[in-house]
Amino acid sequence: MQQIRNFSIIAHIDHGKSTLADRLIQHAGLVSDRQFRDQILDNMDIERERGITIKSQTVMLPYKSRAGEMFDLNLIDTPGHVDFSYEVSRALASCEGVLLLVDASQGVQAQTVANLYAAMEHDLAIIPVINKIDLPSADVDAVKEQIEHDLALDADHAILCSAKEGIGIEDVLEAIVAQVPPPSGDAGKALSALIFDAHYDPFRGTIVSCRVFDGTIRPGDTIRLMSSGATHRVEEVGVFRLTREPHQKLSAGAVGYVIAGIKTVSDVRIGDTITLDSNPAASPLPGFKDIKPVVFSSLYPISSDDYPSLLDSLEKYKLNDAALVYQKDSSAALGQGFRCGFLGLLHLEIVQERLEREFDQSIIMTVPSVQYQFTLLDDTTVTVENPQYYPDPALIKSSAEPFIRASIIIPERYIGAVMKLCLERRGANPRTTYPTPGRIELVFDMPLAEVVFDFYDRLKTVTQGYGSFDYEIIEYRVSDLVKLDILVNSERVDALSLIVHRDRARAWGVQVCDRLKEEIPRHNFKIAIQGAIGGKIISRSTISPFRKDVTAKCYGGDITRKRKLLEKQKKGKKRMKMVGSVMIPQSAFVSVLKTKDE
Fold it and tell me: Taking CA 543 as the corner, what is the angle to CA 537 and CA 546, rounded to the nearest 5 degrees?
């Protein structure tokens, strides 16, 4: 165990975690130059396309130190985006130390601070590394000052490197060996191993990634999963070296995988403890905090026959993404589906794309919403996340929505644009601090519903990509909330209903009506699209009908003849409108989610 080191790389988005992981893998000689590709640990297409990490990946690196000793370094590469911070917390539970990466040109940003606190909570050794020192805009001294001032870490020992150019990689590895403590644990004790990830393989069943804290696990052992009590016989254990590499055993301190023919997906839970059936551990390891979803949206299969396969796909997907929460739901317009909870809008997009790509599902999503609280006249409180369950307005005494404390770090020159954006989104109580010269931290209290939609994208736009954003949920505050219904041809479409603040209702209504007008095809009769609060119509768009020129054969002659024919046509259209139903295409539901600029 003295030769094992478990470490993770944490940083803000785009500070070079995946590139550093690439260099460490190349240095260890796990992959030949011919087979190498950038972001080698990001094995999902969607990660490579977007250039972001979504899943933490584990790899074991053999390393011979300058003193000539051999070490096994278990690297866990983590995502940087705030929506995937739960991945980071799970990775940290299996480590003893972290590399805290800071970009030499951008300095300390919002997620750098958030991830540092997460590492401190787990009591890990923290090694500051300043990356991208080869950039012309790199300012190493200023970044060292920020590390001392903002993070309260000793910047004299910060390692300078450039992952892209391969500068300082050896120093990073030496620091890991010297500063990260070896894992503690006892191979002679009863087995306890923490499951921190899992994925489904159609040939081998569920493959579990775990960190062994005590004891040893070998092929042929019968293991028990402590939360469900299910027992399985181990077929194979091993470590990750880009591909799965089988070993004779996994002992205390090791990070690896276990294949035990687990066919039922629901048996495995992230954060569960594996122990031996014959000699069980006295108590399970502390798992992970349950993550509370903040954004809710409903998922429906495009064809109702696909409902069973969507259920199956969600079960398999949940193995690999423990933050997704879902329950059954149904809608008059869209049939059977699921109400899902997500950690943010990027998480929602990723779930949608991965279900479509990896599981071949055609799905449709409703407008994202957050959890609101309504106090009724009899002083009971109801929590509503789906506009369908909005209580009767006559019974509502008061309504409240969740507020967040948003911390935004930006260069000084963008303060006007960012202030304007936050105030438009009902931000209140602004506070400013100057962490370092030329940079401002703005702290706003804002309703979560305003941030959920496209706030982060807009912030990136107005700050030309330099704004960094982090938030925490603080409390529920009383707000004037109303339910906005969308009527198409006088019929309410429940999948398009929203709960909004009264001041923003009209703007929303106009936007949705205009968007639907572009998406719904013309029919033979006039279609009215209306936004309504209760019985009061607040916005309207009209789709004009196809018209046949019935007066074409009446050239010249009396005008009353033409009028008579047009009246006759009008009557036919009226009758058609009463019996005709409007076809709403799938794209219309999706278009409502887009903002004007898109």
Answer: 150
* Number of neighbouring beta carbons within 10 Å of residue 568: 10
Q: Do residues 370 and 403 lie in contact, with contact meaning Cβ atoms separated by under 8 Å?
A: no
Among residues of the chain, what percentage have pLDDT more than 70? 94
Domain count, the chain: 5
Kindly report the average pLDDT of the chain as a whole number: 82
pLDDT in tens, 346-355: 788 888 888 8
Q: Indicate whether 406 and 492 sit together in one domain.
A: no
Nearest 5°: CA angle at 81, between 76 and 84?
Answer: 65
Q: Tell me how crowded residue 403 is: count the other CB atoms within 10 A of its CB.
A: 24
Q: How many residues does the chain have?
A: 598
Distance of CA 31 to the CA centre of its chain: 31
Looking at residue 219, which CATH number applies to its domain? Answer: 2.40.30.10
- Tokens standing for residue 452: 């959920």
Residue 91 lies in a domain: yes
Cα Rg of the chain, angstroms: 29
Q: Which helix (H) or strand (E) holds 236?
A: strand 236-241
pTM here is 0.71
Strands 125-131 and 97-103 come out as parallel
What sign for the dihedral angle of Cα 318, 195, 260, 58?
positive
pLDDT of residue 593: 63
Exposure pattern of 226-259 as b/e (b: 16+ CB <10 Å)? beeebebebeebbbbbeebeebeebbbbbbbbbb
What pLDDT, on a 0 to 100 scale, did the predictor assign at position 596? 56
What domain range is 505 assigned to?
A: 482-591
Measure the CA–CA gap between 27 and 72, rounded to whole angstroms. 13
CA–CA separation, 344 vs 459, rounded Å?
15
- pLDDT tier for residue 598 given thresholds of 50, 70 and 90: very low
- In terms of domains, do 35 and 110 share one? yes
Query: What letter does residue 285 receive in the DSSP assignment?
Result: P
pLDDT exceeds cutoff 70 at 580: no
Question: Looking at the domain assignment, is residue 537 inside a domain?
Answer: yes
> Looking at the domain assignment, is residue 74 inside a domain?
yes
Task: Assess whether pLDDT exceeds 70 at residue 579.
Answer: no
513 against 344, higher pLDDT? 513
Give the Cα separation of 456 and 368 in Å (integer): 15
Phi, psi of 494, rounded to the nearest 5 degrees: -65, -25
User: Do residues 237 and 218 make contact, with C-beta atoms less than 8 angstroms apart?
Assistant: yes
Please check whether residue 172 lies inside any domain of the structure: yes
pLDDT average, residue stretch 537-555: 82
Reported confidence tier of residue 577, pLDDT bands at 50, 70, 90: low
CATH assignment of the domain containing 117: 3.40.50.300
Residue 387 vs residues 362, 395, 476, 483, 493: alpha-carbon distances, Å: 24, 16, 18, 7, 11
